[in-house]
Amino acid sequence: LNNIAVLTSGGDAPGMNAAVRAVVRTGIYHQLNVYGIMYGYRGMLKNEIFPMESKSVANIIQRGGTILKTARCREFYEYEGRKMAYENLKKHNIDGLVVIGGDGSFNGAQKFSQEFDIPCIGLPGTIDKDIAGTDSTIGFDTAVNTAVEAIDKIRDTADAHDRLFVIEVMGRDAGYIALHSGISTGAEHILMPERKTEVNDIIEELQANERRRKLVNLIVVAEGDETGGAQEVGRIIKERCPQLDTRVSILGHIQRGGAPTCTDRILASRLGYAAVDALLEGIHNVMIGVVNDKIHYTPLDKAVKAKQEIDPEWFKIVKILAS
Ligand code: ADP
Description:
By secondary structure, the protein is of the alpha/beta class. The protein has 10 helices and 11 strands. GO terms for molecular function: 6-phosphofructokinase activity; AMP binding; ATP binding; fructose-6-phosphate binding; identical protein binding; metal ion binding; monosaccharide binding.
């Protein structure tokens, strides 16, 4: 192993920079040449590949987004596109590739590594935490903390005006951001795709709350919940409980940005270091995660979108603590 490359792909997540930094500096420590690839697979196809030094990653551990930029690339779905990308890597004699991204990016890396002789390592970078083979993903902790901070602020207004707020958080088709932010802000209800919620039950509870004059109510809804998101939940509540002062708030993209938390920086640093370690040891075509605080390898073809089991006891806890 002499020359390795690193790229970020798919949706950006806070902590990706910390992971890039770890890959670059660990590679240089082992006397490898490290290349950065701009704009994910698109840059691989367009030969936007440049040598990186230790100072190329100075002052980025604390920054959100990704200095390598990220993109989605249609051509990479086709063999011809992947072949072109391979030829560009060959021009730089690259013999190892680290892909920081989500399950889509791993699908691409899996195909690429089957077709061509370039070992790939995937690192889970997504705020959604919806990937098998790891307890968390780079960006999740930051996104949850951002959501918590925002919901706390909304709670102040909810309290001042005795309002009911229905708040939508991100997560695509996973509900982890909703679950964690909802528990941490004392939400009465958490709606998420992993568990069906009957809106009727919520309405009944709201009416009961009103009878006992519990005036502040927060409902956190994952964007992928099958009821149809916060707008729809808010619409139903307004229709069925017109006496309540109900507002809807969609947190949106603030959840994707910002300085990574300490937890995400540590995870990203550890995984970036482990990626180079794995390439040096000849461990190929795996995604590296952390399970029970230990480095864990998952073959790229198993590093798929996964709904982890959510212990039903959490919903009991939510109910008891909000009552
Ligand atoms: P994420 O990695 O965040 O899940 P995407 O699903 O958009 O994001 O995937 C990122 C990129 O990975 C895509 O734009 C594409 O270039 C590549 N990719 C995704 N799925 C495949 C696939 N099945 N085959 C080849 N390339 C893929």
